[in-house]
Structures
1.
Amino acid sequence: MSSTTTQQGPQETRVFNPPEAFVAQATVSGMDGYNALCAEAEADYEGFWARLANEHLSWQTPFTRTLNEDDAPFYKWFEGGKLNVSYNCLDRNLTNGNADKTAIIFEADDGKSVNVSYTELHEKVCKFANGLKSRGIKKGDRVIIYMSMSVEGVAAMQACARIGATHSVVFGGFSAKSLQERIIDAGAVAVITADEQLRGGKQLPLKAIVDEALALGGCDTIKDVIVYQRTGGNVGFTEGRDIWLHDLVADQSADCEPEWVDAEHPLFILYTSGSTGTPKGVQHSSGGYLLWAALTMKWSFDIKPGDVYWCTADIGWVTGHSYIAYGPTAVGATQVIFEGVPTYPNAGRFWDTVAKHKVSIFYTAPTAIRSLIKASDVDPKVHPKNYDLSSLRLLGTVGEPINPEAWMWYYTQVGGERCPIVDTFWQTETGGHMITPLPGVTPMVPGSCTLPLPGIMAAIVDEAGVDVPNGQGGILVVKRPWPSMIRTIWNNPDRFKTSYFPDELGGKMYLAGDGAIRNKDTGYFTITGRIDDVLNVSGHRMGTMEIESALVANPLVAEAAVVGRPDDTTGESICAFVVLKQARPTGDDAKKLALELRNWVGKEIGPIAKPKEIRFGDNLPKTRSGKIMRRLLRVLAKGETITQDVSTLENPAILEQLKEAS
Ligand code: WT7
């Protein structure tokens, strides 16, 4: 924990009561219903979770102990219980009346769409699972999934779950090097990928990047590369190692007995950035994780049998796990899975797709909303008012704070003032929503994620772990373990403890890494931003140290410091201060080198990590003991004048040089 954010949250006073038509049918009935659930959790925490786990999941063997805290913070939930996640998501829907219901409406990049029923999805997953087994892949093995948005991507995840293999999805925008690092850390036995991905009318490589990653070396554990043919583009094939998905499943049976696993069995590992070191492999469980994915579909999204639900996230992020691959299927929902990008063929694509498939629940990121506001300012034809959005009844946001202006536009222009907005605060580590309004229940305040879900003991404390009063900013923590929480960091239990359960806070409180403040009167939470060196660019999480390491790995670079700065569209953007081994470049030289370094970072990590701006200096602002003074760099990045104390600065002259682009 580097510092406490004490900045006051936005002093937003507008309150939007849930629209009445919505209230009448909401899953949780009013604030009384919410308070009753909270009181139940307060009175008998384990009883509360045991009841929900029995009501919402199908267990092959019932659990005998709800929560085991003996080895805290390595908590165990639902001990003795055995289940299968894919059984819960698919087989259950074959016998409860959903067999012919559409599970997935796949909206392809080119505007074609195809419907897949629960029966068809089940068959696909079983064949896929049998195919994996035929290659010797088994329970406990790790499988990397490097795919774009597709029915096959979701089927790959479910197929792993079916046989008890632990998947690790790597976002298709990550570089070969990032992919290689994850393959090695996970010790994966196979990679599932596609020949290419289709985004915005362009064919982009996937298989070629897998080949490149494996050629970087150290990936000897990989025995199979399974390739879904998406575009038919030309790709290299390594005999014995590579196999087409259609060949793998061709002769497989459409029945695959699920592998019954312990509730704690690792369903997946998902890598995410921390403030230091390499990305952390966040490990999630099967039972507790699925319980929360399913339950929050009902509580936060009020999902009903007739809904058409659409979450625009990618399966490469946790949102695509909990709210595409697992949550919606676990509750038998119909969902849209979108392959493309929001701006192709034009920036009306989201609204066009909502109208086309009569989407009723829509979940996206504030960055997307902000960029579509801008696009419709430029081209009024793509404004939501030109599309029939009358099917919408609920809107959601995730990934970063939503500014009140964007919230208001979403509420009025997209939701027609009839749709509640759920501003869902959560993290890769939390597995599912933590703090969010309940639709039709919680009065909404633009920019506030309002109140914790029942059973989530969120609080704000100071650096010693002591509660701070409402109205005073502090550190966001969760005081009790919850079923869908991170179980450990793969290969690194010590880092799990120090990152999330630091001794300074007593070792038993979960440290979220965000600052927050509660409203004096309502107790509503507003997230004030990360308190560590983690950036949030377009809702994508990135460690400043990772980007610095990537820059320093370039032979031209002597030193680098990376900071975030506020950005109108992307929330935050990346600004890098770089000292070269050669003399400080200026003018065109500086521009050329900045471009070269941006591309370098793209190659090292992925295009999402490319700094928006690079400034060159002869040195960086440092204290006498040689520590880089990042707080000064943050001020410079914003283009503001430094008014802070610089008495500890060794080389004040450097500030002038770093004030603007070289
Ligand atoms: C970080 C987690 C949760 C899935 C996608 C991102 C920020 C997330 C909100 C929100 C304000 C938010 C936090 C958090 N964040 N949702 N509704 N309001 N901030 O998952 O990559 O693990 O990032 O995203 O800073 O710590 P992630």
2.
Amino acid sequence: ATPRHVTARIAPIGSRLVLVLVEDRTRERRIEAVRRDFVANVSHELKTPVGAIRVLADAVSEAADDPEAVRRFSHRMLTESDRLTALVLQIIELSRLQGDEPLESPEVVDVDQIIASAADTTSVDAARKGISIRVGGTNGLKVFGAEEQVLAAVTNLVSNAVAYSDVGLSVTIAARASDDNVEISVIDQGIGIAPAEIDRIFERFYRVDPARHRSTGGTGLGLSIVKHVAATHGGDVKVWSSPGRGSTFTLILPQHIAAPTADEADHEPL
Ligand code: ADP
């Protein structure tokens, strides 16, 4: 069992009465530890692209009389600075979500729009690899949550499906109702994930294959963001995967079921 951090204070409040104050700081301590760990990881991860940009800037200034080398180094500087930007944006996103506090004011979010928007954002990367993104029947479903967060989560899943699929394959996004929830699935036919890795892929900065990761330009934070979005919504995220065959990630969020309109209610069978 996890040790608990509990303190007790005893305050006499009369000749026969004492007041016992018990304070459980387990949760605060845990959040504090996660935060410390996160900051250490972040500093480490930021050093890599910043270091690369520094080295490339030196190389550019030394290659002034070789236009081809200048062009090559500058291009790599752009790639590294894009990576740095993506990393910083995801770090900000993740630090907002880390407390896993339930949403303060959830709103009705249209699943069709989320899926269309996620497909649109990833369409350039998909087109570059000749990957087609198919949108399955989504049935006008709505979830109860934070639009920005749901969009970030689904976009991360679709962008991973594209990144970890080989040229010419397809990615399918579909949604269906299941009890009180909506299940949004992103299905790919890509490289898949070994069973031993499945539990670890949701950890911050964890990548199955850092070498391949470098070429896909990922940050190692995407799935961690997806997991936290599921938590703040009281939902879940499930994964099925088979190496060489593909993966299916399913984000489960609370469904918003509209109350029947007065007109519909009139026609309800008795
Ligand atoms: P990254 O930015 O590296 O994609 P994520 O947190 O999104 O970071 O994913 C963590 C790791 O999980 C990835 O580096 C990759 O190894 C693996 N992974 C995620 N999605 C998929 C997928 N659809 N197919 C295969 N592997 C995946």
